[in-house]
Design goal:
Blueprint: H1 3-18, H2 20-35, H3 37-40, H4 42-46, H5 49-63, H6 74-88, H7 96-120, H8 124-152, E1 156-162, E2 165-170, H9 180-198, H10 203-223, H11 226-242, H12 246-262, H13 266-273, H14 283-300, H15 313-321, H16 330-364, H17 372-390, H18 401-428, E3 429-431, H19 437-440, E4 450-452
Antiparallel strand pairs: 1-2, 3-4
Helix pairs in contact: 2-5, 2-8, 5-7, 6-7, 6-16, 7-18, 8-9, 9-10, 9-11, 9-17, 11-17, 14-15, 14-16, 16-17, 16-18, 17-18
């Protein structure tokens, strides 16, 4: 074996060995985080289980003898820059106490997903486990409130229809803290992975996908989330663009939309028609969302350059506009909290993430379109397209998803580059005809001498 390949194999084995324990704890943390184990098991809540896991994992990563290297990728640089900027501007923001007590802690809780993913997901097997746990846990978060709804009539939330009437909306399970729009986001997040990663595994997995798809759509209908419906439309558009069977998908989509629309109840039909019509009972709430965007950007212009401070969107909206809620548009939230400078840094971070996914997609196509890395990258690209839309209807500067998927973009690109290098090295080691010992001396048997291709 070539010396460089030997060194690469030894290095990969060393990294795998030294990060094995923190990686397994990271998997446990993913399960605890998504399923809210401390809320389900009181003892775990008392001992601050998630906090302890983060502390132990961080200590083991920093204490590992093998690291990822001294050179930071672009996404890491911009993410670190946002954190440093939020700390450096503390004397200049309006509510530094809120930044220290709430903003920085919440941001670290979200961005820790990037740090853990980049440093611990070091091979394809680990990536498969991480994606599997991510999809599995979020499926449980969807099916649990649905089961409660079917068995007990549970909804968990409500929306105002006008004229003193309210309609129930399905939210997360009692142990979960997700609202109806959040539950719709989880459904939209899972769908690309079921389509690209799970369904192609086997016929059984494809059958599971076909079974789950209408169940997820039915659950989405119970949330009454208009942004969720738009998110699914974006996912369908992304899948359509990537598919070679566009005519078939178009026919299935039209038939599916017809069946779904005919089975909507009056409240659901009115709710979704309010997206395109001003003559529905709930059109006022849709127009109110647009007016809220205008108000949020006006608050941002109160301190446009530096911002009011990381994690202070709700305070800023209350003190400036008299509205007691965090901005429900990501870009306004960022501008309100860390100003135009912070907004530019976040956009650069997002640009680096997009560039990683696109580059990984181009490179992996040269190997195999049936490869797990290719299918995972396709799912993540469609997810990113969807989440960009969802950012217009939801906050998220301190949420995990941007940082978890940012880390996955780095991991995917690294793995694709490594696979291409291994393929290139293996092709460069070929037997040179007429120069091997076996060619000159047939009785020498199986002995072969290999030379790099010239």
């Amino acid at each position: 074996m070539d010396t460089s390949i030997q060194r690469e194999a030894i290095s990969a084995e060393a990294v795998d060995k030294t990060t094995r324990l923190p990686y397994r704890l990271f998997l446990l943390y993913l399960v605890s985080f998504f399923l809210h184990l401390p809320a389900r098991i009181p003892l775990l809540g008392i001992i601050r289980f998630d906090f302890l896991l983060v502390g132990v994992i961080s200590y083991l990563i920093f204490g590992a003898k093998v690291t990822r290297g001294s050179r930071l990728d672009d996404a890491s640089k911009y993410l670190l820059a946002i954190l440093i900027y939020a700390i450096v501007t503390l004397p200049l923001v309006e509510w530094p106490g809120s930044v220290i007590n709430n903003g920085l802690i919440a941001f670290v809780k979200g961005s820790i997903f990037y740090f853990f993913t980049v440093n611990l997901v070091v091979n394809q097997r680990r990536l498969m486990w991480v994606v599997g746990i991510f999809v599995g846990c979020n499926l449980i978060r969807i099916l649990e409130p649905l089961a409660l709804n079917v068995t007990t009539g549970y909804l968990g939330s409500a929306t105002y229809l006008g004229d003193g009437d309210f309609a129930g909306r399905l939210a997360g399970a009692p142990s979960d803290t997700v609202n109806p729009n959040g539950l719709a986001f989880i459904i939209a997040t899972v769908l690309p992975f079921l389509h690209y990663v799970v369904a192609p595994i086997s016929r059984k997995m494809f059958a599971l996908y076909v079974l789950l798809f209408p169940v997820l759509l039915y659950t989405m209908g119970l949330t009454l989330s208009r942004s969720g419906v738009l998110a699914i439309a974006i996912i369908a558009f992304g899948v359509f663009l990537k598919s070679k069977r566009k005519a078939l998908l178009a026919m299935i989509g039209i038939a599916g939309l017809t069946v779904i629309f005919l089975n909507l109840n009056d409240i659901q039909r009115d709710r979704y028609l309010s997206l395109v019509s001003h003559d529905t009972r709930q059109s006022a709430s849709a127009e109110g969302r647009i007016e809220g965007w205008v108000s949020d950007f006006k608050v941002a212009m109160n301190r446009p350059i530096i911002g009011h401070g990381l994690g202070t969107s709700r305070e800023a909206n209350w003190n400036v506009a008299g509205k007691d809620q965090i901005s429900h548009i990501l870009w306004a939230e960022i501008w309100q909290e860390i100003g135009l400078i912070g907004l530019i840094l976040f956009i650069l971070y997002l640009q680096a993430m997009i560039r990683n996914f696109l580059k990984a997609g181009r490179l992996i196509r040269t190997i195999s379109k049936d490869d797990f890395l290719f299918r995972a990258n396709e799912a993540m690209q469609v997810w990113l397209l969807m989440n960009l839309l969802f950012s217009l209807a939801s906050y998220g500067l301190k949420s995990y998803e941007w940082y978890f998927f940012g880390g996955l973009s780095v991991v995917l690109l690294n793995m694709v580059n490594r696979k291409l290098e291994e393929k290139s090295e293996s092709k460069s080691l070929v037997p040179v005809s007429g120069n091997t010992i076996a060619d000159k001396y047939p009785l020498a048997g199986r002995v072969n001498e290999y030379h790099p291709r010239r």
